[in-house]
Amino acid sequence: MSVVDELSGVAAQRVPDMDIPGFRARHDPERRSRLRRRQAVCLPKIHHRDNPVNTKSLTERIEGRFARITVIGQGYVGLPLAIEFASAGFAVTGLDTDRRRVAALNDGRSPIPDVSDATLKALRTKGHYGASSDFEALHESDVVIICVPTPLGKSKDPDISLVMAAAEEVAARMHVGQLVILESTTYPGTTQELLLPLLSGRVGKVGEAFFLAFSPERIDPANATFKVRDIPKVVGGITPECSRLTALMYSQIVKEVMQVSSPKVAEMSKLYENVFRNVNIALANEFALMCRNLGVDTREVIEAAATKPFGFMAFHPGPGVGGHCIGIDSAYLAWKMKLDGYDARFIRLAQEINQGMPACVVGLVAEALNQRSRSLSGANILALGVAYKRGVGDIRESPALEVIEQLLQKGAKVSYADPHVPVLTVAGTSLRAIEVDAAAVRAADCVLILTDHKEFDYRDVVADARLVVDTRSATWGIPVGAGEVIRL
Ligand SMILES: NC(=O)c1ccc[n+]([C@@H]2O[C@H](COP(=O)([O-])OP(=O)(O)OC[C@H]3O[C@@H](n4cnc5c(N)ncnc54)[C@H](O)[C@@H]3O)[C@@H](O)[C@H]2O)c1
Question: Each residue of 374-387: b (16+ CB within 10 Å) or e?
Fold first, then answer.
């Protein structure tokens, strides 16, 4: 049993180290009561069976669902997670530095497809969820989950400054008994080598006075089949007690939790998942290029191979990889290995193939126009879809942007349609999404399908277009009319 489980809540409120920077300011009674008044506006009230809170151990507070949870970062990952805990009866605060996002959330407007406005409003009304930009909320939190972005910097190296910024806010307000979980995807070693030293020494020993773990988020935005609760959680704590509490926490909202022996294993397992996708998408892309060379239909080849009931998993080609995960996470691992003098060869090759796809797509368009005695320069290209994948408005790292940039550089006149992305700026050129109708399709020298959103009617597109270049196999199985359809 840990120190915390033995401590009553009253003891848990006592912070032993009076020399902690900011301790006096934070514990000044007048300041705290001012803070409470302010928090009352934005934080959910605690709703619990009987009488809650700090008179119980963390285990009891989690099991009784009256542990207070703060999720830092309310984006594609943090918001659905916060909503899942709030739906399970916990009082959840969604912390985000983006004040406009916070205002929208508190107004019941969800910025992402996986959380509906109705769900958000209902949880707000019940007092189970509230958003805030005020990190003082961390003082009241039993469990803190960090879900902030982990992008690449200008030099294409990992940029974990947002994780560290969030962790510093946590460290400055730590109290005995707090459980801190990192969910942001990052390179192996981040939790143990960076977060642990930052949090250690504030309130006592890890595994006794506070708890730290890594548990990767595996959500697939806009996937209607697998939502947060359907996807098993992997948990790696610094100590067995850290793992136990983290697993207990997630078992309140997901069906299956797998504990692994360390945060590094959990960090590496997430990277393996995404490198696996990156490498297999690269293989599908290379296969598509080879199939074109051989004059066979790529999709037909994949469908045939996929009839094998074991040992094969279908991946599909496309204009490249995008989003906040696949390419970036691979770069995180390759960077970390390079520090140790190891060349991650599969990752290097996959990145090379996937990053070369936009140029291949532009080449396909140019070649098809050329065969119709038309040059790319001056041609009207209608791009269908710019988001990195179907069903979302996320354009981070979207290969469509690279394709459009290259088309513009070669003198093409590009318009685009995307029901999820109303405006777009590519290399300084501002574009506004158009409606896809027969006139727009007929006016285009080439309709270029870059994201296979279900809102597009591909039958109409194929019927009306003079030329379609389809990088997503969205037109597969649709009879071709008077125009021509070229698939990757
Ligand atoms: N998007 C995905 O499909 C996905 C899936 C699995 C894992 N991940 C990982 O999850 C993490 C978060 O990704 P995301 O897609 O949710 O990002 P996002 O951009 O959708 O959301 C991140 C949110 O964090 C906020 N934020 C940034 N810095 C902050 C700070 N210091 N304090 C508080 N809030 C801050 C931003 O304002 C934003 O609202 C990343 O590490 C990503 O790799 C993403």
Answer: bebeebebbbbbbb
Q: Identify the residue whose C-alpha is closest to ligand 1 atom 21.
A: 75
Strands lying side by side in the sheet with 446-449: 413-417, 380-384, 446-449, 467-470, 484-487
Write the burial class of residue 79 (CB in 10 Å: 0-12 exposed, 13-18 middle, 19+ buried): buried
**Distance separating alpha carbons of residues 132 and 137, to the nearest angstrom:** 8
Cα–Cα dist 157/160, whole Å: 10
Alpha-carbon distance 357 to 294, whole Å? 18
Burial (CB < 10 A; 0-12, 13-18, 19+), residue 429, is exposed
For residue 394, the CA-to-ligand 1 centroid distance in Å is 12
Q: Return the structure tokens found at 128.
A: 């189970």
Are 215 and 247 a contacting pair, CB within 8 Å?
no
Tokens of 86: 């709030």
Q: What is the pLDDT of residues 423-473, one digit of tens each?
A: 999 999 999 999 999 999 999 999 999 999 999 999 999 999 999 999 999
- Name the pTM for this structure: 0.87
What's the pLDDT tens digit per position in 18-43? 332 233 333 444 554 444 444 443 44
Beta-carbon contacts of residue 212 (< 8 Å; ≥ 6 apart): 179, 180, 181, 182, 191, 195, 196, 199, 206, 237, 238, 242, 263
Q: Which of 74, 77, 234, 420 to mutate for ligand 1's pocket (most ligand atoms within 8 Å of CB)? A: 77
In a 13 Å sphere around the CA of 77, the CA atoms on its Cβ side amount to 21
Q: Ligand 1: which of 74, 168, 217, 332 to mutate, judged by most atoms within 8 Å of the beta carbon?
A: 217
196 neighbors 238 (Cβ within 8 angstroms): yes
Mean pLDDT of 464-483: 94
The residue assigned the tokens 């704590």 is: 237
Ligand 1 centre distance from Cα of residue 326 (Å):
14
Give the integer Cα–Cα distance in Å for 379 and 383. 12
- Sign of the alpha-carbon dihedral angle for 91, 97, 101, 103: positive
Return the half-sphere exposure (C-beta side, CA atoms, 13 A cut-off) of residue 196: 19
Minimal CA–CA distance to 145: which of 183, 174, 189, 187?
183
Q: Decide if 244 contacts 213 (C-beta within 8 A).
A: no
